[in-house]
Each structure stands twice: as C-alpha cells, then as structure tokens.
C-alpha cells in the first residue's frame, strides 16, 4: 500500500477544480481525511491551513470570479481577496505584483502515507480484508462471468475488479484486453532546510498556488515545499516506451533540478527569504496523465465487471471522493453525482498512446492554465476528420475537437482570422456565431454533424430491446422517427437519442458526439436476454444538417421535389444530385430542417452539390457554437450539461417523451413523480442584456439566497435576448418570476421565461 505515487506525494488537498462535481468530491476527501484520525484512532497528519490561489493578472482574477460563482452554487466557500489580505496571512510573500487572489479556508495538506493507512484501518474495522504484497500478473474471465486473478501461485476469484493500479493501470487493463490512454510524467518538488522566519512564527502558513507562474508552495516542518510544474517536462521511463517497471514501487527518479530553474526563479521572486535557505531534499516521482488531465473512473466500456480509477494528477485530493463515487457506482449501478466528465467512457479506441503522450506534454507545463469557456487543445490534432475537412477550413472553419473528431465551431468571414480568442466576456467569435444563427433562421444553414454517434440495432428482439431501454415507444412503422430518453432505475437521464425505423427490420439510432461510448456501454449492459445486435456505425456514416425556412426549397431543387411531402419525425431515402442518402426530418435548431445521412464516401459529393446550389437559397455554413445557442432558444436540452443522471424527465420538463403504455427502465420512478413538484426544475431565464454571457455554474438567486445554478448560456439570436438555462428550486420555477444571476461576482436581473422562447407553437419547425 502507497507504493507507486502515493508514498512520496506532496499531500496537498484542495477543492478548486474547473468541474463543480469534482470540487464537491475533493471537498468530501478533505473532510473525510480531517475526521479520519478520530474515526480510526490513528494520526493521519491532516493540516487544514487554508490556501490562496494567486492572480497576477486581471484575466486570472476574472477566472477566480467565475469559480467563486461555481463554489457558491455548490455550497463551498471561496473568497476573493486583495494583495493585502494575502500578505496578512502569508507574511513571507512579496505581493507587490499581484492583482489579488482567492482564499479557500478548507484547503490543507495531509501525510498521504498515514491517510492511506488510516483508510485501510477504517476498511478493516468494517470487515474489509486487505492482502498485501501480491502482484496480480494475470486476469481471466470465467464462464460464470466472474474474474480469476493470479498473483504468482495464488488465485483469487471475484465479480468486480477495480483497476486502481496507478502508473501501472495501463498494464493491468491490458490483462483484460482493454487499453487506457495513460501517460506517466516525471514531476519534482523540493523541500528546504528550516527557515528562520518560519521558525519564529506562531502559526502555520497557508498553502499557495501561484497559478500564473505554475507552482505550488506550502510549509513543510519549519521549511517550505516548492512544487513547480516543469516547462521542459519529461515522460517517465521514456526509454522503456513509457512503461513503468513492476519493481519501481518505492523508487524515485534522479533529481534534475536544472529543469526547475524557471519555476524556482518565480518562487524565489515571490518568497524573497528563500534566497538564504538551503535545499534539504528533492523528490522526483511519476504522475499519471489522461489526455485531458482529469481522472479516468468507472466501468470500462466493453469489459463488464471491470472498473477503473486511475489517471490521477491529484489523487490525494481526489482519492476520498472518488472512493465514495466508486462505491456508489458498484453498489447502486451509478454514482450520486454526474461524473461523465471523468468517466473513462469519454475516451475511445481513437485515443492512441502517441495522442495521449502529446496531450500530456501540452498539459503538464500549464497545469494551472486559465480555463476559459470553450477552450480547445492544440496537440494530437487532427485525428478524425470527415472528407470535407479541407473544404470547411477553406471556408473559414475554426475547428474544435470532440471525441477525436475535428468539427467546426464557427466560421470566420473573409478578412477575419480564423482563431479563437477566448474570454469570460463576449469572445471574438460572438458576433460571427450570431450571424450564422440569424442567417440560418432567415434562409438556410448547413452544418457538418458527422461526428454524432450512430448505432444500428437489429435482430428479432431489436424493437423489444429499444422499448426496454427507451422511455418512448419505439417506432413500429418503417420511416417513423421518435426521440427517446434512456433512464436509469432512479429515473435519472442517461441520455437521449433519435430512433428511426429503418424499414429493413433494423433501427437507426443517433445521439450526441461525446456520448458514443456511454450509450454503447449502456446498451451493452442491458441487451442481455434480447436477441438484438448493436453496431456502432459512427465512423462510416456522414451527416449534413440542412435547416432554415429555405431548406425545403434548396433540397427540393436538388432532388426533384422529394422534400415536399415529408412530415416531421419521418424519414425517406432520397437522391440529392448524384448521391443517395437517408433524410430524417428532425431539427436541433428549431427550424424546418433535415439531417441527411450518407456514407463517408459520398460525403464530399453531397456537400459540393448542396453548397453549389445553396448560393441561390442564401445558404450559410453553421458551426456547433451557433447550434448550441439556437437550441437554447428552442428549449432543447444538451447531454452532459442539462441531461445528466442527476435529473429526471419530470424535473427536466421531458415527461412527454415517457410512455405510459409500456414498461421501460426507470418507468416506476417516472410514474411516481408525475404531478409532483420536483425538488429542482430546469428553466430558461431571460437575463439582463447588458450582462456578460453565462457559461455554466453561475449561481441563481432569489432574494439573496441561492436557489440553483446555470447549466448553459448564450444569446438567443432570433429573439434578441440573453438566455441562460439552469436548475432552480421547483417551488421557484414560476414563469415570470424575477430572479438574479451572479455572473463574475456581479448580480444581474433575470426572469423565468416561458419555454421555449422561440416558436412556442412550432409553426416554423412544422412549416
Ligand atoms: C512528486 C509528486 C507530488 C505529488 N503531489 C500531490 C499532491 O500534493 N496532492 C495530490 O493530490 N496528488 C499529488 N500527486 C499525485 C498523487 O501522488 C497521485 O495522484 C496518487 O498518489 C495516485 O494514487 P493511486 O492510488 O492512483 O496510485 P499509486 O499510489 O501509485 O498506487 C497504485 C497501487 O497499485 C498497486 N498495483 C499496481 N499494479 C498492481 C498489480 N498488478 N497487482 C497488485 N497491485 C498493483 C501498487 O502497488 C500501488 O499500491 C503527486 C505526485 C507526484 C509524483
């Protein structure tokens, strides 16, 4: 126990994270560790000293303001402070060049070894058995579905494995045929000799994270512990292809302090008394990176009964909370909090070792980067592209990456540099996105949505299976399309998808890009007992969305009028110019529109035909950011932001998609909530037009008390209103009610709107 990375970790435990639910889990760790000594009767070295995040720029301070809102919305404290307040609590700091900072009173550090031993003692007290010094060297699936693990001569059998093998997690996953995109990187910190100024102090110094200079700093004994993130970073065991030798458990790498020079210079600037301090020791260990720097947890898709909890940059801070979440996942089938942002299913087969390595080298030196809304990564791209990738770039597309796919975020008009300049205020792309949205609503727009997840479900029980996992009745007639929700046993929303009866005994299902592996895992877990086959056809099938009042005219002119007699939520095989495709009359923008599905081989021909003819019909290219804002106005909810396992159809206002005529997973929970005011409800808010945009997590208040938080925000370009969607207390969800939204630490007026804001009678959608 503790061999690997834990024994030598610096032990810092903080709550700050860009993801509210990760902050909540980290706060749980903090409280668990702090109370552990009393619970198990042994010391764990918990020091709750509070901590500052330092801001050297106004932009950084703005990020802290954004985070302060998030903290407030989940009930955590996070106070914005000026340089004077920082100096008062940490007199050794030179604060003259600081803009300010954020104070988290709950932060602290622990002795990771003692905490592990404390947790183990707690586990034993509750009947847990721990076998030490056994290395699992083989894992085999038994015919019963259980696992057999071997450790040398010893054999163990179990139902569920949790792979928490730290920097060996990749190797352990390989034992069951799975691959994890983990990169192990070297990371060093130094501990100084005792410092006179600290010896003379009567209190312990708070923790410091100087985010703009990328280092952490805290008191260790009567000295300091200095942890800079290296610009010139190294993959661990690079000469061994990055694979950790099994013997490395209690070892460290050789110190390489030269690589810390830049970071140390910044620390010495901040703490002038360090100039007289000697360095007592250095620690150079390995730290595991996933491609986005967040942990990887949950059931590994395609390997039932095999969970993972690895890829921790901050495994000490996160360990307690993740332990709680994993236990819920195993015992209840899901975690209480939505953890899709750290779920291992967000990575798929497309995440190669080299992709993961490039990402780790990009992320490590900017560990405390300023996380603007919609920020995109630079490395590991392009990876998955559609045949029209270059055509879209030539038309000014600014690409983002989603589940490995390059997909257009927005289009820069001629004379505008196709490049994101992110901001918490209105970023450089704001008005261009507005132009796309408005032009689509007045004429027609084309979007490349080929990255959407696509499944073909076939076999004798295909319909019965989809009826079991979907809340809406599966379309029995060929050419019919429905929107269904997938719910868990508590009625929590696993996801939503469109199902088309393909007319050949099979069904075609379409869901969000980022949800592909989540949906695949959910379907695989529930297909047992049904004679049905699930095929992920995403990579071979292209999709173009064509929408707007002039879309029918455009498509008719290319198909000899095939789009005239074409009711909403139906499908047809059509020929558009030279290309045969399947058209589905559905719309995410709320305008008259179709999705055109064809093979990737035909994608370019279809795109060329539509764009050449489109000139006559006012066609514009539309990126995912415009679509994201159009859907807000239409009251459509987004997977991962509004649609999560934390909420039910009743709370999300989606009961109309839940059948009362058939059984399905989650039905009992849905039925029990009918007619009942849910504790929280999803609403659209019209926000003060002068306010900065909401990006998510901003607290919603009524009479000064927090009643919920924002999940998505943006401009309603058709109605000309600033919009936000969010959760508020069910009792407060009254149309017309005045509320407030706290954005970047300023309070702005808002009003609960009647949903949807755009086209409430569906005249345009059904037109
Ligand atoms: C220098 C440094 C400083 C750090 N500072 C901090 C910090 O201040 N705060 C923080 O939150 N995080 C910090 N971290 C990160 C933190 O150390 C890790 O995130 C955390 O320790 C990971 O814990 P883990 O349990 O996942 O992995 P490990 O601690 O590596 O544990 C993995 C365990 O799996 C066992 N194992 C592996 N393979 C097998 C097998 N085949 N059979 C049986 N057992 C196996 C190992 O023996 C080991 O016990 C730091 C990391 C480094 C390198």
Give me some keywords for this one.
767 residues; alpha+beta; FAD/NAD(P)-binding domain; Gyrase A, domain 2; Elongation Factor Tu (Ef-tu), domain 3; 3 domains; eight-stranded mixed sheet; six-stranded mixed sheet; 18 helices; binds flavin-adenine dinucleotide
How would you characterize the overall build of this protein?
The chain has 767 residues and is an alpha+beta fold. It folds into three domains: 1-125 and 135-240 and 274-371, FAD/NAD(P)-binding domain (3-Layer(bba) Sandwich); 379-675, Probable tRNA modification gtpase trme, domain 1 (Gyrase A, domain 2); 677-767, Elongation Factor Tu (Ef-tu), domain 3, CATH 2.40.30.110. It is 25% helix and 27% strand. It contains 18 helices and 35 strands. Strands 3-4-2-11-12-13-10-14 form an eight-stranded mixed β-sheet. It has a six-stranded mixed β-sheet with strand order 26-27-28-25-19-29, with helices on both faces. β34 and β35 (746-752) form a beta hairpin. α11 (430-442) crosses α16 and α14 crosses α15. The longest helix has 21 residues, at 20-40. The radius of gyration is 27 Å and the shape is globular. The N and C termini lie far apart (65 Å). Bound molecules: flavin-adenine dinucleotide. Residues 1, 3-6, 8-12, 135-136, 164-168, 172, 187, 189, 249, 283, 285-287, 310, 312, 314-317 line the site of flavin-adenine dinucleotide.
Strand order of the largest sheet: 3-4-2-11-12-13-10-14
The whole-angstrom Rg is 27 Å
Tell me the count of domains: 3
Ligands, deduplicated: flavin-adenine dinucleotide
User: What spatial form do the alpha-carbon principal axes imply?
Assistant: globular
Our measurement of the CA-to-CA distance between the termini, rounded to an integer number of angstroms, reads 65 Å
Task: Name the CATH superfamily classification of the largest domain.
Answer: FAD/NAD(P)-binding domain
Contiguous runs where pLDDT drops below 50 for at least 5 residues: none
């Amino acid at each position: 126990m503790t061999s690997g990375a834990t024994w030598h970790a610096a032990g810092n435990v903080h709550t700050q994270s860009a993801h509210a639910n990760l902050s909540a889990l980290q706060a749980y760790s903090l409280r668990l560790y702090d109370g552990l000594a009393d619970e198990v009767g042994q010391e764990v070295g918990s020091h709750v000293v509070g901590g500052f995040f330092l801001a050297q720029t106004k932009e950084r301070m703005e990020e802290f303001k954004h985070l302060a809102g998030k903290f407030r919305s989940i009930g955590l404290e996070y106070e914005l402070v000026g340089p004077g307040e920082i100096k008062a609590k940490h007199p050794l700091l030179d604060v003259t060049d600081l803009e300010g900072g954020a104070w988290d009173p709950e932060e602290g550090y622990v002795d990771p070894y003692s905490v592990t031993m404390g947790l183990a003692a707690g586990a034993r007290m509750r009947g847990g058995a721990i076998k030490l010094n056994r290395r699992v060297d083989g894992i085999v699936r038994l015919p019963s579905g259980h696992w057999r693990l071997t450790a040398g001569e010893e054999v163990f059998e179990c139902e569920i494995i949790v792979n928490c093998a730290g920097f060996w997690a990749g190797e352990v996953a390989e034992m069951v045929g799975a691959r994890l995109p983990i990169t192990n990187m070297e990371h060093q910190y130094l501990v100084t000799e005792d410092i006179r100024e600290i010896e003379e102090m009567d209190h312990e110094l708070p923790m410091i994270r100087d985010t703009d200079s990328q280092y952490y700093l805290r008191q260790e004994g009567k000295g300091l512990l200095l942890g800079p993130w290296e610009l010139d970073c190294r993959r661990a065991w690079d000469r061994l292809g990055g694979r950790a030798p099994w013997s490395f458990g209690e070892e460290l790498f050789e110190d390489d302090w030269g690589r810390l020079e830049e970071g140390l210079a910044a620390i010495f600037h901040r703490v002038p008394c360090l100039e007289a301090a000697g360095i007592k020791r250095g620690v150079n260990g390995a730290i595991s990176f996933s491609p986005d720097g967040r942990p990887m947890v949950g059931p590994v898709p395609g390997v039932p009964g095999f969970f993972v909890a690895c890829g921790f940059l901050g495994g000490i801070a996160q360990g307690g909370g993740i332990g709680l979440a994993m236990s819920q996942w195993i015992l209840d089938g899901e975690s209480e909090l939505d953890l899709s942002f750290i779920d291992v299913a967000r990575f798929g087969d497309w995440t190669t070792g080299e992709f993961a390595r490039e990402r780790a080298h990009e992320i490590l030196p900017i560990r405390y980067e300023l996380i603007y809304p919609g920020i995109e990564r630079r490395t590991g791209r392009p990876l998955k592209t559609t045949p029209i990738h270059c055509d879209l770039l030539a038309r000014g597309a600014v690409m983002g990456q989603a589940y490995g796919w390059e997909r257009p975020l927005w289009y820069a008009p001629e004379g505008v540099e196709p490049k994101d300049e992110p901001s918490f205020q209105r970023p450089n792309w704001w008005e261009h996105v507005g132009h796309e949205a408005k032009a689509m609503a007045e004429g027609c727009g084309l979007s490349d949505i080929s990255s959407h997840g696509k499944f073909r479900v076939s076999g004798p029980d295909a319909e019965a299976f989809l009826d079991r996992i979907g809340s809406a009745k599966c379309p029995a007639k060929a050419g019919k399309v429905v929107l269904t929700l997938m719910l868990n046993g508590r009625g929590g929303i696993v996801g939503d998808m469109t199902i088309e009866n393909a007319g050949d005994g099979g069904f075609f299902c379409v869901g969000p890009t980022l949800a592909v592996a989540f949906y695949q895992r959910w379907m695989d877990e529930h297909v047992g007992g049904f004679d049905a086959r699930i095929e992920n056809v995403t990579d071979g099938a292209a999709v173009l969305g064509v929408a707007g009042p002039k879309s029918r005219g455009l498509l008719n002119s290319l198909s000899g009028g095939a789009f005239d007699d074409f009711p909403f939520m139906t499908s047809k095989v059509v020929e558009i110019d030279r290309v045969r495709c399947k058209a589905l009359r559905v719309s995410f923008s709320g305008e008259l529109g179709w999705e055109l599905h064809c093979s990737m081989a035909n994608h370019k021909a279809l795109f060329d035909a539509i764009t050449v003819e489109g000139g006559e019909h006012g066609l514009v290219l539309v990126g995912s950011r415009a679509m994201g804002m159009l859907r807000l106005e239409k009251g459509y909810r987004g997977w991962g932001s509004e649609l999560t396992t934390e909420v039910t159809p009743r709370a999300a206002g989606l009961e109309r998609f839940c059948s009362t005529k058939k059984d399905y997973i989650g039905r009992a929970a849905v039925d029990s909530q009918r007619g009942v005011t849910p504790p929280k409800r999803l609403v659209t808010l019209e926000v003060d037009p002068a306010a900065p945009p909401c990006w998510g997590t901003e607290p919603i208040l009524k009479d000064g008390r927090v009643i919920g938080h924002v999940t998505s925000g943006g401009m309603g370009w058709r109605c000309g209103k600033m919009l936000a969607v969010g959760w508020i207390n069910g009792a407060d969800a009254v149309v017309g009610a005045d509320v407030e939204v706290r954005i970047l630490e300023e309070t702005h007026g808002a009003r609960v709107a009647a949903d949807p804001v755009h086209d409430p009678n569906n005249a345009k959608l059904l037109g």
